[in-house]
Every structure is written in structure tokens, then in C-alpha cells.
Design a protein that fits this description.
Strand content: under 5%
Number of strands: 0
Helix content: over 70%
Largest sheet: none
């Protein structure tokens, strides 16, 4: 749960930065949000979730 919230906050910060720089318009951001909601309700959602979890565990296992 905390990993999901962290990823959402990170993506939100990145989206705000891109919107402020003018590289992405508000309409593009809305399309991306709608795509995310639609993907969450498909059969691909567990695969995406597993991929994010695997990447997070790989990154957390790295030692500097």
C-alpha cells in the first residue's frame, strides 16, 4: 500500500513539473489519467502491478 502511494505521489510530482514547463497540456494529462483508470479495470492490471512490485524489490535490493 505505501509503495503504491509513493509511486502515485512521484508520478503526480513529475506530471506537475511537466505541466508547468509547458511540455504537456492539461488535455494530455487528462487523457493519461483516463487511460490509467481504464487499464486498472482490465485484465492487464495484475501484470502491471506485479511488474511494479518486481521493479521496486529489485531497486530496494541494490546496495550503493
Amino acid at each position: 500500500m505505501s509503495l503504491s502511494i509513493s509511486i502515485v505521489l512521484l508520478l503526480l510530482i513529475i506530471a506537475v513539473i511537466i505541466l508547468r514547463n509547458g511540455a504537456m497540456k492539461l488535455s494530455h494529462a487528462l487523457v493519461c489519467v483516463l487511460l490509467g483508470f481504464l487499464l486498472a479495470s482490465t485484465s492487464v492490471a495484475p501484470t502491471i502491478h506485479d511488474g511494479i512490485n518486481a521493479t521496486a524489490s529489485l531497486v530496494s535490493g541494490l546496495k550503493p
